[in-house]
Amino acid sequence: MGADPQILDYLYSLRNHGSNYGIDRMRGLIAAVGEPHKNFPVIHVAGTNGKGSVCAMLESLYRSNGYKTGLFTSPHLVHLGERIQIDRTPLNEEALLKQAEALRVIATALGNRNPELRPSFFEFVAALALQHFATSEVDIACIETGLGGRLDATNIVDPELSIITTISLDHTELLGDRIEAIAVEKGGIIKPGKPVLLGNVVPTAERILRALAEERGSSVYHVAERFPDPKQRPTPNLAGDCQRWNAATAIYATELLADRFPIQ
Question: CA-to-CA distance for 242 and 102, rounded, in angstroms?
Fold first, then answer.
């Protein structure tokens, strides 16, 4: 018997419940399913702009070198499974429904125990992605934050490398109305002892991020230090100087991780 097609209605109904911005629900949900995010290496990417492009470029670089890749991005264009990809193949609807049905049982039990533990739509989908990557035994996963960083559902991961692409005013009602405040939120993905790579971040934000990294004992790298001359930055198929920054960020990231994940 196939999965209940009404699971999609359930999934999208989670949007109607709303939720307070925070990470505690995600911690509870992911603990209930066995913490699958601990079973594979992650590159975690935040930023106002460019994070999706950097994730896609990284995924392409690793996949073309023979690694089995996971990619989690949002939003999707047509099908929900586009958010969860293995080797650039989206999770098909049948598999998504089957996996979501099993997760719904757990999520419902949590919500019945405490309504405040009912996961949001994004948290549910993020948990699905982490489960799928673990069971598929990916070699590396590129994971894009949904909103901010510090309290984002994806921030339960302990990445090999954190990347912050750009910082400007966005979602000010949740993240703050000053660059400094937003830098603190996005800098929340910097993990103790794990390196962080900065893209085209403004000096005000860079100072905040470097201070956060120092507090956490994290090494800081900056794309502009690796590619000081703008002409050195690679030219990808996508047009625009921002995409050259993104491509340079992806390439530098692979260099920083070359000992564990060598590529050509």
Answer: 41
